[in-house]
């Protein structure tokens, strides 16, 4: 690992993480637009709040429960002097491919798009097989997150705020992805089909490594 000055390092389960320095206030996001998924609660809601604290001009709360999204929007808006329509609530359900593609189509009409934070995710103890045929954790944390990434990257590319740095897409993952391991199938069968079969037919939990995208998919476009 390359030594970077002024970067705090934290060791966990044998893996060293570098924490980038952040500031919680400022106006460097004035004029910019961001999408945050899973932003009606938890890390996504706090991320949305911090983007607004840095002057963000337009925020899309991407949520599966629009009532919760509206509550989050009102909560966020109460702290700032925002223009009307500065915070919008858009429906996004990772258990449906139609919902993901409709969401991405909707993003094409945004004037600019500078920041995407794909934060929505779950860790469910009882196994649930979704209509897509995949177990819910794998569907939400991995497959749907990857699909939305693929659909939004070209939009980020063409919709970046004029005259500024390229857009940025960040996936919120887990340290679990850094240290857990699973065996690849030895018989040449596709990994996903093998996992689906083990989870559906033999009742196994999905391996932790694949529950979260394995790499910090921070894509900087240029
Ligand atoms: N907190 C931790 O210690 C921790 C540790 C490791 C990883 N993470 C990751 O960090 C991210 C945020 O977690 P959090 O702790 O803030 O949890 P959280 O409060 O439960 O937030 C998760 C968000 O994801 C949304 N979501 C779940 N399933 C969805 C679906 N099918 N379609 C669209 N949105 C969906 C939830 O929406 P609803 O409100 O409608 O349920 C919620 O807004 C997740 O990706 C999680 O895996 C967190």
UniProtKB/TrEMBL annotation:
UniProt keyword Oxidoreductase present: yes
Pfam assignment, any one: adh_short
GO molecular function: oxidoreductase activity
Coiled coil ranges: none
InterPro entries: NAD(P)-bd_dom_sf, SDR_fam
Origin: domain of life: Eukaryota
Entry keyword set: Oxidoreductase
Record's keyword annotation contains Oxidoreductase: yes
Identification of the protein by name: Uncharacterized protein
Species of provenance: Xylaria bambusicola
């Amino acid at each position: 690992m390359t030594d970077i000055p002024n970067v705090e390092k934290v060791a966990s389960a044998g893996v060293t993480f570098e924490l980038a320095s952040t500031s919680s206030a400022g106006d460097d996001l004035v004029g910019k637009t961001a999408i945050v998924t899973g932003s009606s609660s938890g890390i996504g809601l706090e991320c949305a709040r911090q983007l607004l604290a840095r002057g963000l001009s337009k925020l899309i709360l991407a949520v599966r429960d629009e009532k919760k999204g509206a509550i989050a929007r009102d909560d966020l808006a109460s702290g700032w002097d925002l223009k009307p329509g500065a915070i919008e609530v858009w429906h996004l359900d990772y258990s449906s491919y139609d919902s993901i593609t409709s969401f991405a189509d909707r993003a094409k009409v945004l004037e600019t798009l500078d920041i995407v934070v794909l934060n929505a995710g779950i860790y469910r103890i009882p196994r649930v097989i979704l209509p897509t045929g995949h177990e819910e954790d794998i569907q939400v944390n991995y497959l749907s997150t990857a699909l939305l990434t693929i659909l939004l990257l070209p939009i980020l590319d063409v919709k970046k705020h004029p005259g500024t740095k390229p857009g940025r897409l960040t996936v919120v993952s887990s340290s679990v992805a850094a240290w857990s391991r699973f065996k690849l199938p030895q018989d040449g069968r596709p990994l996903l089909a093998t996992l689906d079969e083990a989870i559906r037919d033999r009742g196994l939990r999905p391996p932790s490594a694949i529950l979260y995208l394995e790499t910090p998919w921070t894509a900087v476009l240029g």
